[in-house]
Amino acid sequence: MTNKKITIKDAESNKEIDLPILESVLGPNVVDIKSLEKNLGLLSHDPGFLATSSCESKITFIDGNEGKLWYRGYPIEELAEKSNFTETAYLLLKNKLPNINDLELFSNDISNSYDVDSSIKDMINVFSKDSHPMAIMIACLSFLAAKHHKEINIQNEKYRYESTINLIASVPVISAWILNHILSNNFQKPNKSLSIAENFINMSFPELNEEQKNHSSKAMDIIFLLHADHEQNASTSTVRLSGSSETSPYAAIAAGITTLWGPTHGGANEAVINMLEEIKNSERDVEHYVEQAKDKENPFRLMGFGHRIYKNYDPRAKIIQKIAHEYLNKLDDNNPNKPLFDIAMKLEKHALEDDYFVSRKLYPNVDFYSGIVLKAIGIPQSMYTVIFALARTVGWVAHWNEMIEDKNFRIGRPRQLYTGKNKTSYKDIKDR
Ligand code: CMC
Question: What are the phi and psi torsion angles at 22 (to 5°)?
Answer without folding.
Answer: -95, 130
